[in-house]
Amino acid sequence: MPVITCIEDLRRLYERRVPRMFYDYAETGSWTQQTFQENTSDFKEIRLRQRVAVDMSDRNTSARMVGQEVAMPVALAPVGLTGMQCADGEIKAARAAERFGVPFTLSTMSICSIEDVAEHTTKPFWFQVYTLKDNDFMRRLFDRAKAAKCSAAIITVDLQVIGQRHKDLKNGLSAPPKLTAKSVANMMTKVRWGLGMLGTKRRFFGNIVGHAAGVTDPSSLSSWTAEAFDDALDWNRIREFRKMWDGPLIIKGIMDPRDAKEALNVGADAIIVSNHGGRQLDGALSAIRALPAIMDAVGGKIEVHLDSGIRSGQDVLKALAMGADATYIGRAFVYGLGAMGEAGVTKALEVIHKELDVSMALCGRRDVKTVDRDILLVPKDFTGHWQE
User: Fold this and answer.
1) Which of 265, 336, 331 is closest to 298 using CA atoms?
2) Integer-rounded Cα radius of gyration of the chain
3) What's 360's domain CATH number?
4) Structure confidence by residue, pLDDT tens digits, 98-110
5) Which residue among the candidates 276, 305, 353, 385 is catalytic per the annotation?
6) 79 in helix, strand or coil?
């Protein structure tokens, strides 16, 4: 077993062990992939300010996210098809997050269902919903999340239409995977992955098949998906969803201060500054560049979380110092899951936590709640001077 010291080690192992179509699904963005790439490269432009001769003992990384105690201000983001990266992937990731003490968020487009994850965990997890047209399905989806004792709901608002992801189209991405000569040849080289998939019954979208009207088997899923997303979504529709869910509500996909204010007005408890990991509007700002203007607009009135581009504990630290209350990792935990299963997710969390803890100490801080802009050196034009 290779020595894992950083998230990149997990990514390399993940690339070797998971079929190409699922690796490409996680590791690419839309169109030219400019935003996907800048989500990570923009973090590198921010520097940390080292301090010395400061008491660094008794450090604390614990925090709160929408009222919940967390071991560090990092949640596992909702990622569709997680159960195709590794057999029963959502269950394994949820168990790893539970043990570590951070939230796990189950995607609507997961392979394991809400009920599957609830059956195999002992503490509440979070549930993410897309804004779909079918009111009855949406209401039942929220009711199922309540029955599973989910402790927060995340509404993703940036997927009314789907950004074109070239590699997914070329690979014929599907669950279960399409059996072409090329895909079969590739899957035959992924023995560990294949044995896991043969040993599970969960190979379809567990929250959709058998629950959405007319979707009784995988063959009827594609036509439902093509028509399901609500391209007429507006803030009044989101208010309707707020009435369907009376627990903590987080709105994901905010990249503009005006939308942040709208989310505040509909009664959200938190927003996630996110560009869907660069998978929707290519050419948009990175999440970390968009964060300061959103903090100026709503900071202090609502929790502001950040997703998209986090690959290290230093990225977490920089996001917090820029003003975010908390962060999410998606690809970073998926790398671990595909590389080593449940143990890989734990390893990813351990790596991020250690990097956060050590970097925070070297910046002269003992408690993550005291981290602020003073520990950063930010380029003068980092947020950009754009012509209106």
Assistant:
1) 265
2) 20
3) 3.20.20.70
4) 999 999 999 999 9
5) 276
6) coil
> Going by DSSP bridges, is the β-strand pair 303-306/74-76 parallel, antiparallel, or unpaired?
unpaired
* Residue 37: domain span: 7-377
The answer to whether position 140 is within a domain reads yes
3-state helix, strand, coil in the chain (%, to 5): 45, 15, 40
Our count of domains for the chain comes to 1
In angstroms, the Cα distances linking 366 to 65, 100, 246 are: 19, 20, 36
- Whether the bond into 103 is cis, omega within 30 of 0: no
Confirm whether 359 is domain-assigned.
yes
pLDDT 10s digits, 149-183 = 999 999 999 999 889 999 988 888 877 777 788 98
385 in a domain, yes or no?
Answer: no
Task: Note whether residue 386 is domain-resident.
Answer: no
Confirm whether 276 is a catalytic residue.
Answer: yes
pTM score above 0.85? yes
Question: What H or E segment, with its residue span, contains residue 169?
Answer: helix 166-171
User: To which H or E segment does residue 249 belong?
Assistant: strand 249-254
